[in-house]
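Trying the structure run again after the queue cleared.
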Amino acid sequence: MTELSFNILDMLRIRSTAYVTKNPAGNWSTAVNSHSHLARFHLVLSGSAWVELPQTGQREKLDKGDYVIVPNGEAHNLSAKPGLTPMACDIIPSDEFAPDLLGQGDPSDGTHLLCGYFQMSESAPPAILTRLPNLLVHRGNSEQDRQKTDMLFQLIRSELLHKSGNMSSVLNRISEILCIYAIQTWLEEMISQDLHLSALFDPKFQQVLDSIHADPIFPWTVENLASVFGQSRTTFATHFRTLMGTAPINYVTSCRVRAAKRMLEESNLSLDEIADKSGYTDTNAFNRAFKRETGSAPGAFRRASRR
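Done. Tokens:
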């Protein structure tokens, strides 16, 4: 993909939590509950598995090195073969990583899975999120795909073998890369088939986003953003809302508030200083905008982030 595509992918900002399943053998089957706010993923480290959506009957076989993402958190089954009645329920561990889920014995005796869940940031473009399939399977069909996946696969195996003190964090970060890579590969296949996706990667539209991100405190208006794109005010506003799921100025506000959240979390600047650096000369206006976006006042947000 082009560099422009990676700028869009960076807006997804996935945060993942990974855990390793037991090592089932025989006719095993597990139900994975629905979590509307969490996407789920499953990577086959050894053996094979079937993933199935009970609601639609859609199913896919996963072999070693394959992985699947369920972007909308829909309920699904994992099993040794299709059609088996689930005998267990996959429950998200209370800890970020549960070593007792690794199982005993040689992993080659059964199926060994790296599973987990993740959330995408609020900045993720709806034009992408609303078009992701119910099951996004990555198999490494090209030589380049296989090489990249194999490198990550070996890192995972190494962490599981040596069980370093940082294993949980390493697995989380690797799973984030796997998820981004699967979405990137899917985009490469779909971008020529979907007008909205191709419009999202239009250099002119990317220039608009880059302009906002480079200087979110600039007094942007729909008119001057439309001029960057080269469209009329009305046409541009409709186009932007279709792709990003929000009005242009609301998007600018979101960018300002995200910058303010970072300053509240990481700096000791006063609320007046943060308001000014976020593009607001009136602290009260900043407080109102921040609360609309986050549901919390800036001061309360800062206190909660430091507990």
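Residues 1-6, 94-107 have pLDDT under 50 and may be disordered. Worth checking whether this holds up in the mutant runs.
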